[in-house]
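re: ur question from yesterday

yeah so i grabbed the chain u mentioned. its 502 aa long if i counted rite. heres the sequnce exactly as i have it in my notes:
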Amino acid sequence: MVVKVPPSAKIVRKPRFARLPAPVLVRAMVFGSLFRSAPKPGGKILVAFASQTGAAETIAWRSANALAGASLVRVAALGSLTASEMAEAGTLLVVTSTYGAGEAPDSARAFERKQMAQQAALKGLNYAVLARGDRKYDATFCGFGQSVDRWLAASKARRLFDIICVDGDDDIAAMSKWCEQLTRLGATTSVEQLMPGPPQGWILAERRLLNPGSAGGETWHIALTPRELSQMVWTAGDIAEIWPRNSEAAVESFLRYHRLNGELSFRWHGHWTFLRDIIAHSRLPRPHEVEGIALEWLVERLESFPPREYSIASLPQSGRMELLVRKAVKDDGSLGLGSGWLTQTAEVGGVVKLRLRPNPNFQPPSDGSQILIGAGTGMAGLRAHLQYRQAMKLAGGWLLFGERGEKTDLYYADDIRAWQADGTLAKTDLVFSRDVSPKRYVQNLVTEQGEEIRSWIEAGASVLVCGGLQMAAGVQDALVALVGEGKLDQMTQDGLYRRDIY
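ran it thru and got these structure tokens back, copy pasting raw so excuse formatting
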């Protein structure tokens, strides 16, 4: 299910009223300015979000919508708020993700550095924190959310309830706690309404190796087609969450061995699901883990495969969803769960379960000139943006891209030539680390082209970065050296510096 949320570029300008559905806007107009009115105690709620890929922002808006019938609600990006604006609210609800090693999302970096560096005067403010993270990073799980929670407590705000830490998109237990607390604040909602919808079935239409003979890992072109045209709804920068699965043969063998009916349905991750599908998307337990166990208990104990996120490399106008997938190979020679399944195990013509995720922090920021920086499979996200600019007849793009070898790893070379020919790309700089000595990377390009990049930025160009964490960190360091940390913070708040990193 695609959830439409207001573009973050509109949120960071700190409007007095958040953009809620029509009934909420009517309520706001009747009562006037949210924080100048005098509702009953506890009637003013500020919902603040800090989101890297849009998931935390979506939960924030859904929570606000649920509360709007009983309270006067404002929604804002956490990074756009000052301590005094927080203090004005009767109740503050923070919904935040954690990026990297316990760090703040891009939009909240400046907030963490400036606001959270010292205690604020927040006595009299009630607050609660919902933190999203990935438990496989146990040492830093929900790290930024926990930092926000500690800072608010140290600033004398009153904690309404303990921080709720959510493990990914399908942590129904944690989201149920959040739903319960929202209900106590007057919300009318259910946990299903707060969580993403179930994944939908797409057809694996094409799989093609793009870089045979590469010095790096195999990179595959994956194309998916929808079962229904209504599924073709996304924009440049959005994300596909792919559910890896066991093979059909393995599922049928498991059901047959344990004499289980795959057509039985169970409540699983908040949705009614056939047992066959539950088994398909879970680690297959060993025989001794199944024997003598009630079926309902077995379903509860199954370890489901987490979804894998991929930047979408196409637009709906193409009639299909295209991905750029690097096949991960572990030290023992086994394949990564998601990439191994997509590139090797899944059958062409078979069903792939996926869920679209709007990613407002990486959607097109403006129609002006644009610098697009990426490496490796980060070309996927940049390609969708360049397709968007081509469709909108927007000139003035500058692509800086890095990979290993030009002969094997220049993905979408025909597209690049077409963008150069029609003016979508005004400038293109490519670097291939294995073709030169000493090795050079895309962050080196940023430094080498520094004067011109600074000139583009001063003229109002936006900057998009897509690719791996190490590359993105190197690019950010190079940009800070060029324009300064304050300028980069301001560009982030204005929606002119956006990243999709993994």
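noticed a couple things. Confidence is low (pLDDT under 50) at residues 1-42. also The longest helix spans residues 469-483.
anyway ttyl
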